[in-house]
UniProtKB/TrEMBL annotation, chain B:
<keyword id="KW-0547">Nucleotide-binding</keyword>
<dbReference type="GO" id="GO:0005524">
    <property type="term" value="F:ATP binding"/>
</dbReference>
<dbReference type="InterPro" id="IPR003439">
    <property type="entry name" value="ABC_transporter-like_ATP-bd"/>
</dbReference>
<keyword id="KW-1278">Translocase</keyword>
<keyword id="KW-0813">Transport</keyword>
<dbReference type="GO" id="GO:0022857">
    <property type="term" value="F:transmembrane transporter activity"/>
</dbReference>
<dbReference type="GO" id="GO:0016887">
    <property type="term" value="F:ATP hydrolysis activity"/>
</dbReference>
<dbReference type="InterPro" id="IPR027417">
    <property type="entry name" value="P-loop_NTPase"/>
</dbReference>
<dbReference type="InterPro" id="IPR017911">
    <property type="entry name" value="MacB-like_ATP-bd"/>
</dbReference>
<comment type="similarity">
    <text>Belongs to the ABC transporter superfamily. Macrolide exporter (TC 3.A.1.122) family.</text>
</comment>
<feature type="domain" description="ABC transporter">
    <location>
        <begin position="2"/>
        <end position="220"/>
    </location>
</feature>
<protein>
    <submittedName>
        <fullName>ABC transporter ATP-binding protein</fullName>
    </submittedName>
</protein>
<dbReference type="Pfam" id="PF00005">
    <property type="entry name" value="ABC_tran"/>
</dbReference>
<keyword id="KW-0067">ATP-binding</keyword>
<dbReference type="InterPro" id="IPR003593">
    <property type="entry name" value="AAA+_ATPase"/>
</dbReference>
<dbReference type="GO" id="GO:0098796">
    <property type="term" value="C:membrane protein complex"/>
</dbReference>
<dbReference type="InterPro" id="IPR017871">
    <property type="entry name" value="ABC_transporter-like_CS"/>
</dbReference>
Amino acid sequence: MKLPVYLRQSWQIMLKNRQYSLLYIVGVTLSMAFIMAFLMFVLMASRSIYPERDRDRMMLIGSVLLCDEDGNPKLNTMVSSRFAALLEGAGIDGVENTAVITYSGLTKGVDLEVPGRGIVTVPELYVDDGFWEVCQFEFISGRAPSGEWNPALPEAVLSATTARRCFGTEDAAGRELMYGGTSLRICGVVRDVSVMAMLADAGIWLPIQMGREMASLIHNEPYVGTDMMCLLAGSRRDFPAIRAGVEEVIARYNASFGKADGMYISPEETVPLTYLGASTDAHVGVFISAITAMVLLLMLIPAVNLSGMVSSSVEERIAEFGVRKAYGASAGVLVKQVLSENFLLTLIGGLAGMFCAGGLLRLLSPVLAGSKSGYGTGVLQADLVFPTDMFLRVDVYAAVFVSVLLLNLLSSLIPVLRAVRSNVTDSLNEKK
Amino acid sequence: MIKLIEISKIYRTSEIETMALDNINLEVREGEFVSIMGPSGCGKSTLLNIAGLLDEPSSGTVELHGKPVSGLNAREAARFRNTELGFVFQSFHLIPSLNVLDNVQMPLLYRRMGATERKERALKMIEAVGLSHRVKHFPSQLSGGQCQRVAIARALVGDPSIILADEPTGNLDSKMGAEVMELLHEVNKQRGKTILMVTHNESQAKQTDRIIRMLDGRIIG
């Protein structure tokens, strides 16, 4: 194994040329932080994250298209509660569970009145009982709502941050606060949810009955709705059957109106809007290709800059390459050696960059949070809660490793090839 | 052992041609210690480089161990240098970021050899040049004489049959130069290595078996 010798030398070079090494590592760290932030954003958007642990088998119906009887599109709207109830009760094959979320249409969250603390504004979600089955929350204190609707004292769940803001502690189960003149009993407090959790992100989760009550005041049921629906399949293999089942329900729904109503859900739009994990393979393929191209393009910028640094570094070692060639090293061996040595620096920067990416995502969170408003939550959340379990994922480390390898290759290969191509005597005499 | 047959070397630029070696014929027998002398620019180092497969002649044939080697491709030449040749340079050419042990074992990296064997052979050779107490030191922590000893250990570690030394004492004071020459004689006599050495030092040359004198790219005696 030559690698330990190469890495030992790389370590010595790093100690000897501290300024160069520091600059190189900082350069890689910054570059990798941006690349990793991008990749993590993509991973968070496309893979299972807390509490949406089963994204790969979730199907989302976020909106429907309403058409006239000739099929001309009239209106794109969220799902109506009537349609949601029909879908829930249809017993579609392959559906293991359903979750319904209602949005009240508020844009800046709900104002909670906390005794002794005044008004605390937090983003809210109105959810049904199935929501707590479909999403797997970690309860810090208390439990999920019991499922019994008590209009006099509804149960609500708070995020850890909301609990601290309201009560100064996360151990808030059993406490009460006021919302819109109604007392709420906090039945549980859960670990904070990232804004990247498309379905579950909120600061307070309220019973769906409260949301429906508010929504009915501003929306024209049964056509226009405020619901979003998630169907949890037994497995991905059930998706086609579920899609067919949903189309059947839509046909039934459309048939239930007379022509005079003039509004129909377009059959073309009945394929559920899904998370990436549930999208068609063709969509995933296009998405992955686009992301790969973006990452490669992003990498070219630091690679060009780092390449200049590597170039000046290897030029200082021309005589060394000459000696090594004199003693039998081929150009290929030298290229491998320098790439291995450089890999150490790039890896240090890459790992540092991965951890900085967490901070960067937090910095960029208002922008990223804004991007979610398109899904219809209507609530802007300022903080992106970084899912710490991203650091426990093999695919994140694999992405770091591949990115480091690529960056190393892109930044070092050309300078190294140039340095090792001269003949032995020129190298020994340090002629470039 | 080393046979140069009608070797010429011409350096060409767009404007001029320089004849560095002009029809050189030279034979060095196995176990011989031969020195090459001559004024600067007479072609001594070029001749040594061609004999050591570090450079290619414009014409002529190089034979080592009775086999023509001037037609070898880059990979074959590299393998040949690794197993059959050792080099000692005027400016030592030690790798500054490697310690003595790693510098000495460097030629063995390019062979199929395990780390343990590499280390054992390098330590043995470091001991042979009297630097066992400097194994973990870096070149910047050694004197010139010690650096050249390390370079000699590196040249010997692969057990080559031929050592090519280009002014090995050129950068050393007389005392250290004498120590290095003593070591080279020891390598020649006790280990039976063939040595071809370029030198400007007449007295050191006289200690060798034979002196080749060069002028303007030709052997004159």
